[in-house]
């Protein structure tokens, strides 16, 4: 018998997962904010994250534009028709994609063609298991590609950078986990959450690691040894100094969950699933006859402040997605903007006398339009196209507020431009590493979510593209490597780090979609020409050979080496 309301229940689950960060995750973010100095770059990033969480909930729009690979783990009673359930899940996925709650992310691995509806071979991921309960348990995680790329698997024994030999014991596992946090740096949108799987084979080890992400942030591991290890990692991973977005700081990790399973005698795998701060997972109990939602499995984020000031008030069921509006409890309106930097600098590089405008809501300056920390960082307003003189006046730590036209460009476009011309003049232009969520109506295209993607994927191309087209600024997250840094100096350009996952925050800065090219690449990979105002990002690589990312990595490597000696014997 078909469950009449199952498709609607799955649609509501998808929307809730994509747009409303759960309560336990919000409290973890609040604890992170309490530990970080809000006048620093990492403090600024966490403030922007806090604002974005509330905006996504209020607007019922994706928290992050990369809605990832929808992964379902479903437990069903014996006799439930899993074939019909899968059909309903596919229908709900198509609807959520059409309505802008999911970005079309299913790409043919051989042709590069985007299916456009998030369906295709292997997508979405659906794991069914039977159990002896009466209800159906459906859990969903939306884990973006940026953090998925920072997953890592170790085969013990191994020699680890900075930590030495990691053996087949609890202390070797400890070293692997610390190293996994170090190697991610800010490219996985730290501060993050990690799931760790000990044992299994290469496939089941990763599955176990990802399943740990379905545990509640505040739970206690029933295995005493693993509980101690989780606590150790949470205390010491934050001593690496990587910080939010890899900017350096006190908060690098917000959660660590570890599971264990048996292994083969010849194999000893430690698998780590790295999840960004935008930890989007939710679950529902479903009536096996009607398909109606009986209960929500994780506390709703509605009413949970990312300030951590209010006592947690569990909400039995999230606000319905059909509601006209949501509460804005996730927003922190009192301090979503940090006081302006010491000097405002005009596009000519001269200090301006007027102070930065502070505030919230429509028409206000964004939260990132603030001091990037101590050390005389400046706030600088630039309008595209940008001159080389203006670019060479910038230094690492400056906050740049951009207006004018910028152009999105990701993997497919960068590869294409290596051998072809561009449809628009990019001399003095800004390239934004972004795959937005877009919807089209009778009035044209509209941006629903538009945060940055991980830039390091473009490292093989970026320096050549800067030289070929005269690009003055590249916006992304996580930083880039030595080839790009060299090109910035030689050709007069900068790298600007936007706040990863802040998709609603940056969508507010995009005032118009001027045009689009290369739609054959699919919506995320197309070249969108966007008119922006007040788009704020931090200079983390400048035209003078300076790289914040290289400095933080070097510093964190030295700190990692402090954990070389055995702890668990």
Secondary-structure class: alpha/beta
- The amount of beta strand, in percent, is 15-25%
Count the DSSP helices: 14
Helix content: 25-40%
- For the biggest β-sheet, the strand order reads 2-1-3-10-11
Query: What assembly state would you assign to the polypeptide chains in this entry?
Result: single chain
Can you describe what's shown?
This protein has 569 residues and is an alpha/beta fold. It is built from 14 helices and 22 strands. The strands form five sheets. The chain has a five-stranded mixed beta sheet with strand order 2-1-3-10-11. Strands 15-16-19-20-22 form a five-stranded mixed β-barrel. A hairpin with a 5-residue loop joins strand 12 and strand 13. Helix 1 packs across helix 4 and helix 2 packs antiparallel against helix 3. The longest helix has 19 residues. The radius of gyration is 23 Å and the shape is globular. The N and C termini lie far apart (56 Å). It holds the Pfam family Fumerase. GO terms for molecular function: fumarate hydratase activity. Its EC number is 4.2.1.2. Its cofactor is [4Fe-4S] cluster.
Précis, in short:
GO terms for molecular function: fumarate hydratase activity. With 569 residues, this protein is an alpha/beta fold. It has helices at residues 6-19, 23-35, 41-59, 82-98, 145-148, 170-184, 202-212, 224-237, 388-392, 411-417, 459-469, 482-491, 503-507, 548-560; strands spanning 69-76, 125-130, 136-143, 152-155, 158-160, 164-166, 192-198, 253-260, 269-275, 280-286, 293-296, 344-345, 351-352, 379-383, 399-408, 430-432, 437-441, 444-449, 473-476, 494-497, 510-517, 527-541.
